[in-house]
Amino acid sequence: MYLGIDLGTSEVKALVIDENHEVIASHRRAAEYSAASSALVRTSAGAMVGGDGVPDGHATGKMRPALAGH
Question: DSSP letters along 21-53, please?
Fold first, then answer.
């Protein structure tokens, strides 16, 4: 199986393709942007993630954002 993700300027698209090159799942969602404040820019990535994240085994004690709606 293969996962393709297109991070475009207006939307994010994802495809799951099987070994026979058939699309077995796809999803697209409008991209949402907001201006970063100077305080946010100075904050480390680990500190920005709240309690709605999921454990990241590559960074002990850190969290990464959960996928919206999953």
Answer: S-EEEEEEEE----PPPHHHHHS-HHHH--TT-
